[in-house]
Recover the amino acids of this structure.
């Protein structure tokens, strides 16, 4: 099922129908946070549908289905928590409109991509994207100035294969899930490496949250600017750290793709994360950053990754983490 508009008014009617009792507490909490937090933030602007950024939010799960993107099959047309959060964030900030789909084959096409400025993924598995549409996205659409890709959480658990034909996606996303020693109930501390970067600024110099944190393969420090990483010293876990690809666990990063921009953030497993003010502000700010309203470096910082590789290895041993493949 996909919820894409034949007209803007039709889509607004669809949005109204999602704010029904099954989501009422989530929506009320989110609305209050957005009203209080965004109402005093610098990125708030008057809504203008003629000039606002258009986002296509793909939440299709070809593997594990996270609660944040799980629609109730008993209530046709009702959206998932992350979808509601994105729609409301766009409405409250006035920065963007958001169309949600769980049908990549129908909606991630060359013709349809031309209706959007940003594509966001909260996905899993191998998506049914046609080769021609993939090539257009990678080689043309994403390289355009003002275009961008945002990946949330399990976007990194998408195209998790050994097939080199999927390397296009590994490069865009920046990392591929290999495990989550910090499960959804973990309380973690994140070190913010670039607190003046507009996308990292909402998190301060250190950020504590309860959420699930991934480790990755295919991560190439020389390609990305890491904004946040997990701090082992403040993030205990009973899970096993798979050090096959290193100890450093980046959590958020950015990169350029031609004149387009990419932002990945591992957070978002828990539904509650989609009401977290810092997380929401970072998303809203990323829209301004992608469209060029504000500056924020994408210069790779592999020195940071090297430093945190050494620190993470040391802290894992000091705090008696369970480790394999060291």
């Amino acid at each position: 099922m996909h919820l894409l508009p034949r007209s803007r008014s039709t889509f607004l009617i669809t949005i109204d129908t999602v704010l029904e009792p099954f989501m009422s507490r989530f929506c009320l909490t989110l609305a209050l946070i957005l009203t209080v937090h965004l109402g005093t933030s610098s990125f708030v602007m008057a809504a203008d549908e003629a000039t606002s950024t258009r986002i296509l939010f793909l939440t299709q799960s070809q593997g594990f289905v996270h609660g944040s993107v799980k629609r109730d099959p008993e209530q046709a047309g009702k959206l998932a928590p992350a979808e509601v959060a994105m729609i409301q964030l766009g409405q409250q900030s006035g920065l963007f409109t958001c169309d949600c789909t769980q049908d990549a084959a129908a909606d991630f096409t060359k013709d349809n991509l031309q209706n959007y400025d940003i594509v966001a993924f909260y996905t899993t598995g191998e998506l049914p994207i046609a080769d021609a549409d993939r090539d257009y996205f990678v080689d043309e659409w994403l390289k355009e100035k003002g275009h961008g890709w945002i990946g949330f959480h399990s976007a990194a658990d998408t195209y998790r294969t050994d097939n080199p034909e999927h390397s296009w996606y590994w490069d865009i996303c920046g990392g591929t899930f290999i495990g989550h020693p910090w499960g959804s109930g973990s309380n973690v501390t994140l070190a913010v490496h670039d607190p003046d970067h507009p996308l990292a600024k909402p998190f301060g110099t250190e950020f504590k949250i309860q959420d699930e944190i991934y480790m990755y393969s295919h991560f190439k420090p020389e390609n990305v600017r890491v904004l946040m990483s997990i701090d082992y010293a403040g993030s205990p876990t009973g899970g096993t750290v798979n050090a096959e690809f290193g100890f450093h666990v980046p959590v958020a990063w950015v990169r350029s793709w031609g004149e387009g921009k990419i932002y990945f953030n591992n957070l978002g497993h828990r539904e509650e994360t989609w009401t977290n003010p810092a997380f929401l502000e970072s998303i809203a700010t990323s829209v301004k950053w992608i469209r060029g309203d504000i500056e924020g470096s994408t210069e790779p910082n592999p020195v940071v990754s090297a430093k945190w590789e050494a620190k993470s290895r040391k802290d894992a041993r000091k705090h008696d983490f369970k480790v394999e493949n060291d």
In short: The CA atoms of residues 227 and 253 lie 5 Å apart. DSSP finds nine helices and 14 strands in the chain.
